[in-house]
Amino acid sequence: MPVIAPWPAARPARPLGQRGDTDDAMAAGTTVDHLTETYRAHYKSLLGLAALLLDDTASCEDVVQEAFIRVHSARKRVRDPEKTLAYLRQTVVNLSRSALRRRILGLKLLSKPMPDMASAEEGAYEQLERDELIKSMRGLQRRQREVLVLRYFADMTEAQVAETLGLSLGSVKAYGSRGIAALRTAMEAAS
């Protein structure tokens, strides 16, 4: 992660002959020319980075442009001009995250459409089918009923059902298949 220097504190002035090259480079920060060269050399790679994080070209271009604008405004604080590209990459990633957060928030705030309402007739048929299913389930053997309820209504895997009931996996499969066959026969007879 690039290091950004805090705003330079006021230092006592030294005579020009005693100033070192590192002080000059640190005071200068990233130059506009260096940033322009970085833009020309790395714009497409940064656009590709944004494209991996976002889904549309316009947002990618906006993010990369915003990253360059932010680096340009903070160019005096970048200690090492060679780390400008790293700073740009991190800025692109952060701006992409922000863009995705805004989209998610926007989707959450959109009004949700009303669900399609079933007609009264459909509701009555569903109630009749549910009542027939419950009546048919009561006619099953206890183990078959337990396996079917845990497997299909509690949404457990066969291994979880076997562990819960203390049965082998083969027994769960056998009770399940026999239970479904008996349930199908009972439901057809009720129709």
TrEMBL record:
Family: Belongs to the sigma-70 factor family. ECF subfamily.
Annotated Pfam families: Sigma70_r2 (PF04542), Sigma70_r4_2 (PF08281)
Alphabetically ordered keywords of this record: DNA-binding, Sigma factor, Transcription, Transcription regulation
PANTHER family tied to this protein: ECF RNA POLYMERASE SIGMA FACTOR SIGM (PTHR43133:SF50), RNA POLYMERASE ECF-TYPE SIGMA FACTO (PTHR43133)
Composition skew (Low complexity), residue ranges: 1-15
Region feature (Disordered): 1-23
Residue stretches making up the RNA polymerase sigma factor 70 region 4 type domain: 131-183
Domain RNA polymerase sigma-70 region as annotated: residue spans: 39-103
Native source species: Streptomyces iconiensis
Database matches in InterPro entries: RNA_pol_sigma-70-like, RNA_pol_sigma-70_dom, RNA_pol_sigma-E_actinobac, RNA_pol_sigma70_r2, RNA_pol_sigma70_r4_t2, RNA_pol_sigma_r2, RNA_pol_sigma_r3/r4-like, WH-like_DNA-bd_sf
Name the UniProt record assigns to this protein: SigE family RNA polymerase sigma factor
